[in-house]
Amino acid sequence: MPKKKPAIDKAAAKEAVLAYCLKKGALAAGVADLEAVNRICPPGHRPADIMPRVKSVIAIGVGGQTQGAWTVPSKALGYFGSTETRAYSISYGLAFYIENKFGIRSIYCPPDMDPDAGPRVPLQSLKVHAELAGIGARSLAGDILLHPEFGYMYFASVFTELELEPDAPMAENPCPAPSCVNMYRSIQRTPCMKFCPVQCLDGEVDEETGKQKVMRYDMAACAEMTQQYETVPSAIMDAIRATDEEDREDALFDPDNKMLWYKMSVGSGGLLAQCFECMRVCPIATQAPQADPILRHEHRLDAEAAE
Question: The pTM is what?
Fold first, then answer.
């Protein structure tokens, strides 16, 4: 006969799960309300479409750039600006941890694109999971999630048949920051809108309350510049369609495309996205109390001194 599994204390289980995430390097972790996820996400992109008996969605956030990274030119930042793989590593380990500790099925939620829907439609919205779990709120910068303490983070998710109590979304959205509101009142634009290289960001701020009113994001304009995996097949197609050798050589070996082949050959994460300019000028992303390792170091020293 199969062994009877001991009853699981949901509160203790959640505490252990979140503690694991923080110990492994997450800055924030929480549990999203599964019913709310299902209301927001369309059929085919709900957790049960990946894991039929899912009971909980765990969201994990890791730190964004180092303080030094924000000071380098964009052409350099594009090579190392992303820290998302750290979030994926933690969530992958968490799925193993839950199964080993509690004997209950868990999976690392794939952060990838839906092969049936195309390169701009994800299998699952990690952003929705994180927002509902209370570890990020939508900004005017293309709905990038921001945290009042940690600023700009990258997110990952874990689905599990372990039932955990959900957390609530943030009660207050840190975006726009007071300085952004002041700038909007002056020129009707926030820093992220003003400094977007392709002007894909737009929106409105309620000048009386200082709250977000409307957010507009031209995803196609953003992706055309940043999502270079879409550029690769276009370059190859141009070469195939070229009518003479010189045009074919231009299509394959012009300076921009040479960089694509280099990034592919070295496995550079910069191939996938290389624009951080909206976050470079975001006061929440760069100046939140624990937005980078130096600020977190100072916060830790202050905490130790207070003890």
Answer: 0.88
